[in-house]
Specification:
By secondary structure, this protein is mostly beta strands. Helices cover about 10% and strands about 50% of the residues. It is built from 2 helices and 10 strands; from the N terminus they run αβαβββββββββ. It has an 8-stranded antiparallel beta barrel with strand order 1-4-5-6-7-8-9-10. The radius of gyration is 15 Å and the shape is globular. It starts with a helix and ends with a strand.
């Protein structure tokens, strides 16, 4: 019975794994394969940038984060992640809202008019 409840809850959770770019048409300009590894192009930030989610990791061009907590509430997902750059460590909150299977919005609590829209890039 418990496994059935867990399966139903996780079936409704937003699937974040994959590459996400600010413009669906910019996927090839933001991401590139380097061997078996997906990474960022040299000029990815010129095209709006993006991020890659791989399991409990969020990978940006200049930072790598590990998801420490996740709370799903309908189409909304709140994440707490420990992030590291070359210079510092920090804890970051990500508030995401699913628009559809392949698009979401990052919201900034307390700044209602500020948001960034991302589109899932096809597997390359």
């Amino acid at each position: 019975m418990i496994s059935l409840v867990v399966t139903v809850v996780s079936a409704n959770a937003l699937e974040l794994n994959g590459a996400w770019a600010t413009g669906a048409d910019n996927c090839a300009k933001v991401f590139a394969r380097k061997g078996a590894q997906l990474g960022f192009t040299d000029m990815s930030d010129v095209y709006g940038g993006g991020f890659i989610v791989d399991g409990d990791q969020i990978i940006g061009k200049f930072a790598r984060c590990r998801i420490k907590a996740r709370k799903d509430s309908g189409p909304n997902v709140n994440l707490i992640a420990a992030c590291a750059t070359d210079m510092m460590l920090s804890s970051v909150q990500f508030s995401l809202k699913e628009l559809d299977t392949n698009s979401l919005v990052r919201q900034f609590p307390g700044m209602e008019d500020m948001e960034i829209r991302y589109h899932r890039c096809p597997a390359q």
